[in-house]
Amino acid sequence: MTRSPNLTIDFFHDVVCCWCFNISSRMRQLASEFNIDIRHRTFVLQASTAEMQTRWGAAEAARDTILGHWASCRAVSDQPELINIDDMARAEFDYPHGYTAALACKAAEALGGQDAHWTLFDRIQRAHLSEARNIADPAELARLAQDVGLDPGRVALAMSDTATCQAVEADRQRARTLQVRSIPALVVRETGTRLVNGPIDDLRAQIRAAIHLNPN
Fold first, then answer.
1. Contact predicate 95/49, CB 8 Å
2. What is the per-residue pLDDT for 2?
3. Where are the domains positioned within the chain?
4. Which residues contact 97 (CB under 8 A, 6 or more apart)?
5. Band (179; pLDDT cuts 50, 70, 90)
6. What is the pLDDT of residues 129-172, one digit of tens each?
7. Residue 3, C-beta contacts closer than 8 angstroms, at least 6 positions apart
8. Which fold has domain 7-213?
9. Whole-prediction pTM
10. Cis peptide bond N-terminal to 184, omega within 30
11. Residues 171, 35, 31, CA angle at the centre, nearest 5°?
12. What's the whole-number mean pLDDT along residues 86-92?
């Protein structure tokens, strides 16, 4: 008989967010140590090329600014060698928005549950941060879905389903309800408290404290 988790944690993230990359690997480790249920929530920072331009300005200026954020993130990453600033700086496409990839993650979730969402999310992040691939391209996302054992045709079909768009919007509404305004965000569902993002030892201590306050 499977035990109920001690905690359920909503993890709000965007595939284009380098800070989310740092937190995802740490939460994978902590999920192996504690009886916690991590629920993945898309939080799209910009949903289109037009939104990218409104937020960041011209494409090259956007790339330069965002890659400055990558440098800050790499300085505190557990896996700095995977944050490939040089190749993204040379990429021939504009810096991508995260909406199409969010649809892919929610499609994976519809087909394979939370594990499939997380697995595809991590693969897309590696493609973005390490391999300088255009993750706003649906064809690229189909290839990445195949990389992790998903049927690319089924993923593409699910991405075009109205229910998948609604699932992305439902995550946005949940973020608003919880007053999540930035990512990565880790919200303990049982108490509504938010974990403070940081090194894995800090996150581990916070989870222990939260479990102590909410014994199962």
1. no
2. 54
3. 7-213
4. 16, 44, 45, 46, 47, 48, 49, 51, 52, 136
5. very high
6. 999 999 999 999 999 999 999 999 999 999 999 999 999 999 99
7. 35, 216
8. Glutaredoxin (3.40.30)
9. 0.95
10. yes
11. 65
12. 97
* Residue among 158, 167, 160, 136 at smallest CA distance from 41: 167
Give, as one character, the DSSP assignment of residue 181. -
pLDDT at 1 over 60: no
Query: Amino acid identity of 89?
Result: A
E-strand ranges in 14-116 read: 36-42
What amino acid is encoded at 49 in this protein?
T
CB 175 within 8 A of CB 43: yes
Instruction: Write the single-letter amino acid at 182.
Output: S
Could you tell me which of 45, 39, 40 has the C-alpha nearest to residue 14?
A: 45
